[in-house]
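Regression check, adenosine-5'-diphosphate case 300:
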Amino acid sequence: MAETGRKPAVPAQPAPGATESERTAPASPDAAASPTAQPAGAAREPLLEVDNVTLRFGGVVALDQVNFTLYKGEILGLIGPNGAGKTTCFNAMTGIYQPTEGEIRFRGSRLSGKKRHQITKMGMARTFQNIRLFPEMTALENVQVGADTHHKTSVISALFRLPRHWREERDGREKAEQLLEFVGIRDRIDEVARNLSYGEQRRLEIARALATEPVLLCLDEPAAGFNPAEKEELLQLIRQIRDRGVTVLLIEHDMRLVMGVTDRIVVLEFGKKIAEGLPAEVREDHRVIAAYLGVPEDAA
Ligand SMILES: Nc1ncnc2c1ncn2[C@@H]1O[C@H](COP(=O)(O)OP(=O)(O)O)[C@@H](O)[C@H]1O
Ligand SMILES: [Mg+2]
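Current build output:
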């Protein structure tokens, strides 16, 4: 990852999870267990509320009365064995599927009936378990497509470089450059996405998601297929993203990675929430241990 002295690239907006004084407040002794623990007495502000959500695909109950709240400024891990419903949860949050029952609220607003692009505009961005980039477009262009959610130009005018796009392009390029630098692939800016290494593509997806200026970034198994060194770098990147004010929801199968970076963890199994708590609590939970028993760490 690039370590440079350049000015930070993200986010453009102030930290959604904290006031200036909260962000700069020294950690209290209680903060040891959780790097984002708020100062004593500070109310935790809900950012995303998953309220009794059930989602069925025919006979398959992918989510079964799932409840959890994500608070501003935290890194929440969403874990569970393969098929537990983690990706379905993201899909319900981002407007790809509507819950069969229950509701999801983001920044206090119900998401039911909202389209994907509306939810993106509300400040939620995600990456995909299976990388979804435009393979023939450069790294820069892939990020600019993300940034265009906040511009008047559509993806189409960006793709075909229509006039309104030209006016916004200079700003867009600078921002995209900063984002690529932030995720550590500034040197690959003009390379087409399909020529990037797997790890670079994962970073590019994160840069593209950040280009929408989210308050909540949802990462679906961002470290899948990474070696230990790459995982460690990703962990640092996730911390940096949070430190710049973006709340993070992290789906991850690698227990070690999750334990090292999250403030709290929600565990799903067969669509049901089976545990929730601090990483140390969840690691000791017998239901979690049983759920993971016999499942290779990197099975996805
Ligand atoms: N579009 C779909 N149609 C039918 N079943 C689905 C669909 N998406 C997910 N499922 C099912 O829902 C369950 C949860 O899947 P998923 O959310 O992908 O799990 P995870 O991400 O935790 O591995 C699985 O049984 C899966 O087969
Ligand atoms: Mg999944």
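Comparison notes: Confidence is low (pLDDT under 50) at residues 1-41, 294-300. The pocket of adenosine-5'-diphosphate (ligand 1) is lined by residues 57, 60, 62, 80, 82-88 (CB under 6 Å). No diff flagged against the previous build.
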